[in-house]
Design a protein that fits this description.
alpha+beta; 5-stranded antiparallel sheet; two-stranded antiparallel sheet; 7 strands
Length: 118
């Protein structure tokens, strides 16, 4: 988890993104777009104090998938026993975003989260 791969000097290097695993600032997107799957994470918190990760994932083909992980505050906590994963909310809402439409997918999952926590 949290691995980003990059070619340097003709060799593949694995770079660990500590901010994905450790501390994720509230309301900031963290994206790993260098390899497949491409992934974006955003830590958000509702007014009742519940933590969520908005999670976008793109695999070799379109569209982006979007899920909300309840009781999570970073990438590591997404695997905890009390973390609750939604289904792919983008496809459930008939929303289709191609690889280059990342910003649209981000806006859509944020809107779906706001509607969910009302």
């Amino acid at each position: 988890m949290g691995a980003v791969y990059r070619f340097e000097e003709g060799k593949m290097k694995v770079l660990m993104i500590n901010e994905f695993q450790d501390e994720m600032e509230l309301n900031k997107w963290y994206c790993s777009m260098m390899w497949c799957p491409s992934q974006c994470y955003k830590h958000v918190q509702s007014s009742d104090g519940t933590h969520y990760i908005l999670y976008l994932r793109w695999r070799w083909e379109d569209p982006w998938q979007g899920t909300i992980v309840t009781n999570a505050y970073n990438e590591s906590s997404m695997q905890n026993d009390d973390a609750e994963w939604s289904s792919d909310l983008l496809s459930a809402d008939f929303l289709y975003f191609e690889q280059h439409q990342t910003e649209g997918a981000k806006a859509a999952i944020e809107k779906l989260w706001r509607e969910q926590v009302r």
